Amino acid sequence: MPEAPADAERRRAVAPVICYPPEALPDPGLGRVGALTRVGGVRVPPRDARAIRVARGQVLRIRSVEGPQVGDLNLFAADDLSERFYSGKTRALHGSHVSTGDRLWSGFPHLRPMATVVHDSLDWYGTDAFGGRVHDVIGTRCDPYTARLLQGRDYHRTCHSNLTRALSRATGLPLAEAESHVHDVLNVFMCTGFDAEGRYFMKASPVRPGDHLDLLAEIDLLAVLSACPGGDCGAEHSSDAAHCHPLEMEVLAVDGEPAPEPARSRYDRGHGA
Ligand SMILES: [Zn+2]
After folding, report:
1. Residue 26 C-alpha to ligand 1 middle, in angstroms?
2. Per residue in 219-239, pLDDT tens?
3. Do the beta carbons of residue 73 and residue 186 sit within 8 Å?
4. How many folded domains does the chain comprise?
5. Which DSSP symbol is given to 2?
6. Is 266 a member of any domain?
């Protein structure tokens, strides 16, 4: 290891600055959500995924049923699969885990809120003694390629493959084309953090049946959710070892007129050329 310079401590002592001050973001408008009425829904079987359409102004409720279970969520603009959830920028804007008031943003060149977290029954969890929090935008999704790399075998029930099959069924696209649209997820109900060495950890989710995360659709959405083969993600994923449960996706109508659709980014896309 190279020797530390004489001023190492002074360099380490420089105070950090928040990359994207949250107060610069538009107000999430949490007051918009009044009475909710269920208008549709689908049950996501364990180790599988389902898709559902959610109109602008409706709430997508992801609900725990039967037992602790983590879900991996992909979001698309209902009429344009190229506009999809951007987990990395959402993390940069709101932090490593999302909760009430945070938005789920779409990628470039759109960069607009696709959905807003309007209720989270696990808000009470906060940050535990290990630095763990719930609903992360850190993890990518379990997938058969990493499973092959680390375990040397093929496993077909990872979230990546579950999302691929469900998106293919929902859109009629061939499997290979659907796969190219699957992206890094919101890890719903997953409890994760980084240890002192910076290693990504997971621990058994505190979610219990009845807990739910409510996402207000800011644009018409196609939502695809996988019930992760890791179950509560307390031990391992990418295998049939964990005890898994279904998840429920419910679509709820909201009283009153929906807010106007958020504008896409106004950047002129000149890129200085
Ligand atoms: Zn998974």
Report:
1. 32
2. 999 999 999 999 988 887 777
3. yes
4. 1
5. P
6. no
